[in-house]
Design goal:
homodimer; about 280 residues; Substrate Binding Domain Of Dnak, Chain:A, Domain 2; 6 helices; rod-shaped; cilium biogenesis/degradation (chains A, B); AH/BAR_dom_sf (chains A, B); cytoskeleton (chains A, B); BAR_CBAR1/2 (chains A, B)
C-alpha cells in the first residue's frame, strides 16, 4: 500500500541533475581556466613584441622612432586591457565555477540523506513482505512491522517534501548561476574587444600618420654628412680585413653625432608625450 | 689624395641598417608567429568549450537547452572569426616578415660586393704608400701603382654611386614594409575585435532573453509527472543498493517524453535559423 516509486523517480531526476551539473560545470571550469591561461600567454607574447618594437625604435631615425614608440605604447595598452580581461575572467567566471563545485558536493550529501531515509522505507516494506510469507499468523510481529513501515513511510514523505523544495531551490540557483556566469563571461569579453578596437583604431592612425618622406630626407642627410666627413680617423682603424665589418668597434666612430641626434629625439618625445593621454589605459 | 673614409662611413651605415633590420625583423617574425600560434590555441580551447556547452544543452530543459545552443552558436562564430584572424596574420604579417629575411640576405651579398671593391681601393693605396717609402725613385713602378689606385678609385666611386642608390632603395622599401606590415597587423586585429564585439552583443542578448521561470515550470511539471507515474516498472529495477544511481539504465525511463521534446526543439531551431544570417561568419 506504500509505493516508493514516485520518490525514487524524483531522486533519480535530482541525481541526474546534480551529476550533469558536476560533469559540465567541472568541464566549464577547466576550459574557462584554460581559456584564461591562453589569454595570459597571448598577453605575454604581445608584451615581448612591445619590448622589441621599443628596442627597434631606438635604432631608427626620428620619424619612424617616434611612430614606433607611439605604436608600441598603444600595443601595450591593449595588453593592459588583456590583463584586466584575465583578472576579470578569473574572478567572475573561473572562481564562481570553482565555488559551484563545493555547492554540488553539499547537494550530494543531501541526496545521500534522502536516499538512506527512502532505503529504510523499502527495507521495512520488504521485511513486512517476508514476515507475511513466513509467518502470516504472527499478528503481533506483523503489526509491529506494519507500524515500522508506517513510521518509515511518514519519514520518507516528510523528506520527500524537503527533497522537492531542495530540488526546486537547487535547480533555480543552478539556472540563475549558469546565466550569470556566461553573461559575466560575455561582458568581460565585450569590454575587452571594445577597448582593444578603440586602442587599435588609435594605433592605425599613428601608423597612417607616419611621414616616410621626412624619414628618407633624414636618412639621406645622414648619409651625405657621412660622405662629407673627411677628418675622422686614421686609415689603419678601417680594418678592411676584419671578418666582422659591423663589429662594435666600428660603431663608436659615430658616437658623437649619434648622441647629438639622440638629444634631439628626446626633446621631440617629450613634446609627443604631452599630447598623449596616459589615463586612458588601466594599470596592471 | 684618394680617401676611402666617406664611402666606408656609408657602408657602415648600410651595414648597421641591414644588421638592425635582420635582428628586429627576425624577432618580429618569431614573435608574430608565436602570437598567431597562441591565438590558434585560444581558438582550440574555445572550440572545446562550444562542444561542451552543446553537450550540456542536450541535458537541459527546452528553455535553457535552446538558450545554450544559441549561445554556443554565437561562441562558435567568434571562433570562426578568430580562425580568419589566424589565417590573415599568417598571410599578411608572418609571411611578409619571412620574405623580408630573404631580401635581407640579398642585401648582405650586395654589401659584400661593395666591400670587396672598396677594399681593393684601400689595398692599392697601401701598396702605393709602401712603394713610396721603399723605392721612392722607381718612377715606373710608382706610376703603375698610381694608375692602379686611380682605376680602383674609379671603380669604388662607381660602386659608391650604386651603393647610395641601393641604400636609398633599401631604406625606402624597409620603411614602406614596416609601415605596411604593422598596419596590416592592426587591421586584422581591428576586424577581429569588431566582429567579436558584434557576435558577443548578440550572445549577450540571447542570455538576457533566457526565461528562467518558464524553465522552472517545465522542471516542476517533470518532477510532478514523475511523482504521479505509478505504473512504470517493477520494484526490482529500482536497484536501491547500486553504487551508480544515475547509471544509463535509469535514463531510459524517460526516453519517450525526451524524444518528443527533442522534435519540438528541432522545430524551434529551424525557425531561429531562418532569422540568423549565416553569411556574416567566415567559413573555416
Amino acid at each position: 500500500f506504500f509505493s516508493p516509486l514516485p520518490r525514487d523517480s524524483q531522486v533519480r531526476i535530482m541525481e541526474t541533475t546534480v551529476a550533469n551539473a558536476e560533469k559540465y560545470f567541472g568541464l566549464f571550469c577547466t576550459l574557462m581556466a584554460a581559456y584564461t591561461r591562453k589569454t595570459a600567454k597571448l598577453r605575454d607574447k604581445s608584451d615581448l613584441l612591445v619590448k622589441q618594437i621599443l628596442d627597434y625604435a631606438n635604432t631608427e631615425n626620428p620619424e619612424l622612432r617616434s611612430t614606433m614608440k607611439r605604436f608600441a605604447e598603444e600595443l601595450a595598452k591593449v595588453q593592459d586591457y588583456r590583463q584586466a580581461e584575465v583578472e576579470r575572467l578569473e574572478m567572475k567566471v573561473v572562481e564562481p565555477l570553482k565555488r559551484y563545485g563545493v555547492q554540488l558536493k553539499q547537494m550530494r550529501t543531501e541526496i545521500k540523506r534522502f536516499n538512506s531515509v527512502r532505503n529504510n522505507e523499502i527495507k521495512q516494506l520488504e521485511k513486512l513482505e517476508r514476515l507475511r510469507q513466513k509467518s502470516p499468523s504472527d499478528r503481533h510481529t506483523l503489526s509491529q512491522a506494519e507500524s515500522n513501515v508506517h513510521k518509515a513511510s511518514v519519514d520518507a514523505s516528510r523528506t520527500t517534501q524537503q527533497l522537492e523544495e531542495t530540488i526546486d531551490e537547487f535547480q533555480k540557483q543552478k539556472l540563475t548561476d549558469i546565466q550569470k556566469i556566461f553573461l559575466d563571461f560575455v561582458t568581460v569579453e565585450m569590454v575587452f574587444h571594445a577597448k582593444a578596437l578603440e586602442v587599435y583604431s588609435s594605433a592605425f592612425q599613428i601608423l597612417t600618420d607616419y611621414d616616410l618622406e621626412r624619414d628618407m630626407e633624414d636618412f639621406r642627410a645622414k648619409l651625405h654628412s657621412a660622405s662629407g666627413n673627411y677628418d675622422a680617423r686614421p686609415v689603419s682603424s678601417t680594418n678592411p680585413s676584419s671578418s666582422l665589418p659591423w663589429s662594435s668597434s666600428s660603431q663608436s666612430i659615430h658616437s658623437t653625432p649619434q648622441r647629438q641626434e639622440e638629444s634631439e629625439y628626446d626633446a621631440e618625445e617629450h613634446r609627443l608625450q604631452d599630447f598623449s593621454d596616459p589615463e586612458e589605459a588601466p594599470t596592471r
